[in-house]
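Researcher: Here's a chain I'd like modeled. Treat it as a single chain, no partners, no ligands.
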Amino acid sequence: MKKWIRRIAIGVPALLVTGAVGAYVWFWGAPVGMTNYINKKTVPFMIESPEMLTYVGLDNTPLDFHSGKLADYTEATWDKSTKRAKDMLTGLNERGPEGLKGQDRLSYEITKWFLEDQLSGEEYRYSSYPISQLSGPHVNLPSFLTDTHAIVSMKSAERYVSRITEFGRVLDETYDNVATHAKHGVIAPDFIIEKTINGMESFIEGGVDENPLITTLPDRLDEVEKLSDTDKADIIEQTKALVGDLIIPGYEKLIAQQKNLLSQTNSDAGIWRIPNGDKLYAIALRSNTTTDFTPDDVHNTGLSEVARIEKAMDNILQAEGLMDGTVSERVQILMKDPNQIFPNTDEGREEMLAYLVDLNTEVMSKVGDYFVTLPSQELEIKRVPEFSQDSAPGGYYQGPSTFGEKRPGRFYINLKDTADNPKWTLPTLLYHEAAPGHHFQISLSQGIKGVPFLRKMSPFTAYTEGWALYAEKVAAEDMGMYDDNPLGDLGRLQAEQFRAVRLVVDTGLHHKRWSREKAIDYMVSKTGMTEAEVTREIERYIVWPGQATAYKTGQLAIVRMRDKAEAALGSNFNLREFNEMILEDGAMPLGILDKKVDSWIEAQG
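Model: Modeled as a single isolated chain. Structure tokens:
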């Protein structure tokens, strides 16, 4: 079972903010339809994840019983979540699918698929690396504490301190998880362990006074008007003591453990290296693509797409006068063009952020002609926190809060080195992460009325990332965002090629047993990315098997659905209505979405 099921962000308790007695009768008194059943059964999963309660916006509300706590990472909680998921699935099947129609039927199908997926491979409990250079509490919780936990009052500041104490507990539980997995033969490759150690050492190398949990605190406390200087100093001193007594020793303990594991591992890269690895990869591939494609299906699709996109890139490069060398070599020349690189200074970083804001303003001025419902939430464009930029991707999106104090959607851009994102690559990155990509899809999903909260949370990567890649295509081919910017269109193709190559290298690593070095060489030869960039990417795929295949699989599926609709409807095809139909019911497995498209086509005819 996937470990993250116990941290699902389902915001049902917000229903109880007003009208407590009526809410009890309506919500808890008896099952009232499919939506109520699913909501009621998912509340316990949410309660087990204080982090997700914070993420959806329930901090500093009448329902804030959680913001001084962090989740439990013990096997006992794993067992409890597994039992809950099984019980929920049993109850779901007792209520359907017979007699269900419309949204109730769709909610049943989506939730059933989700629960069965979470329980798939249940017998393979030790199936992933508890910590890596990219994931685990040691990576996720620092940025959560400094960037997501809001400090707006003395109480929320005290709860921050409480969460630092909780973080110490979580580090101990993480140590135990790593040890247990190692006993069952689940140890990361040596190069992953080395990167994990480097990241942890970097986090604690400056000692207490230079730790991000401390250095970010004064400015945050200064924003709280009612805090006295004495209160602020007290909060800072309490936090310093806990970081010194719990956090730094917790990291040091994990570092020592990882160093000891180096003698028990090797450089084999794929998931096949651990017990039942081949079965685990098949499960991961289905989970991430929401299809029944085999590894060979995915691999061959990748090879075909790489060849197609490479030809399109070559055409643009030749038109720009770049004739000599492979496509990758010519792209690398453009990547180093000083005219396309913002200065790697504070002023240059601000200039890049301003450029992205202007791009967002431009695209938002045109989206009304291509989309029916536009996001109600604002979008912020921010830099990736400096303490996490070494391991962070070039850019990523964080969705807006669902309840309580409103947090806008955020597009984070990694500004460690501005040369990593030349100007000609930025439009596509923005269209993917912001408008009309993730910001549109996530914002609209949160606004769906009358459906279980699970459907608002978009837990299907193939759909969410497939939409973002499809949005890149809409921006180019329908909205004309690159009509006067051929290099920008080359950036789009390079980004699409990047996702196509992922199909090849992910299946290469985990199914065909490629070495890390073979995967790196292939990706460098096809994308024009630097070896350093590619190495970070390949090592991501190694620790997250199958995840990288979701993007292109989802995009190709949505494009096929659109092609089918255009062929069936001819002049009656309406792009705005098609895009609305894809988005209006939230994320879902691709097979269920395909049936929805068929029904939509029939209704239009």
